[in-house]
Amino acid sequence: MESVLRYSRSSIVHNPVLVGQVIDFLIVSTGKKYLDLTVGAGGHSLEIIKRGGRVLGIDLDPEILARARQVLGNQATLVEGNYKDADLIAKENGFEKLDGILLDLGLSSFQLDSPERGFSFRFDAPLDMRMSPELGVRAVDLVNGLNVGELEELFMKLGEEKQARRIAKEIVGSRVDHKITTTTELAEIVKKVKKVSFGKHIHPATQVFQALRIAVNDELNNLREVLPKASSLLGKDGRLVVISFHSLEDRIVKDFFKSSSELKVLTEKPITASEEEVGLNPRSRSAKMRVAEKLST
């Protein structure tokens, strides 16, 4: 998600991405049941509710869930939890044989705009990056606790960072004198290795920050775990809509859709944002939406 952000804070827009396409593919109508696995600030869910849909929303982040409650009020059932536990949460709330499920994997701009959360290099903040305070490991623990080889593997596998080894060595060398504790410190270390390219809007530390966030929150394993559960929660002809923001997520979704005997793929190629939407909402630039439909129950 960081990769879609320009350096100016004014470029951040608090809008749900691909909202029109999401509503169209979910075929939202009165009385139908929808599960929003990452409800965030409630943008997508609000549009579903406006069209008469019933919504169960899940989010691991208590701060962002509080915002969703302000937006949605009592019009939706909201639960603080990990979307990997969607099957249990849905059953507890009487949401089964669903008409549609949405999984928007993007980091909320509200989270990016909260300096104390440590998600963004745009602020000088503690290296945290946890979606929930209940999670144990923080980014600062990984940055200061892993050796060169472990950091290199982390940055390569979860950040697809080509200069992973050089960055890992620079980090380990830098922490000899003092512990690396802030986002600014880490970003400056990465910038020593990766020079800023003129005309590019992608910060040199983007992939390193992505890798740390994914590791701290175990995002890819959670995604692998929830996809078959989401499929099982759908009723016949129910639709699963997934919006990803980097190739690691998109590959997992694409492979699952293709391999599932329960689902029919409706999007041969991922749906992306129009130039107009990208202009209004830069975070949509990296969004890729894939949709599949349940064949049987």
From TrEMBL:
Biological source species: Candidatus Woykebacteria bacterium RIFCSPHIGHO2_02_FULL_43_16b
InterPro entries on file: RsmH (IPR002903), SAM-dep_MeTrfase_MraW_recog (IPR023397), SAM-dependent_MTases_sf (IPR029063)
Name of the protein in question: Ribosomal RNA small subunit methyltransferase H
Catalytic activity as recorded in UniProt: cytidine(1402) in 16S rRNA + S-adenosyl-L-methionine = N(4)-methylcytidine(1402) in 16S rRNA + S-adenosyl-L-homocysteine + H(+)
Purpose of the protein: Specifically methylates the N4 position of cytidine in position 1402 (C1402) of 16S rRNA.
Family the entry assigns: Belongs to the methyltransferase superfamily. RsmH family.
Keyword annotations of the record: Cytoplasm, Methyltransferase, rRNA processing, S-adenosyl-L-methionine, Transferase
Pfam families found in the cross-reference section: Methyltransf_5
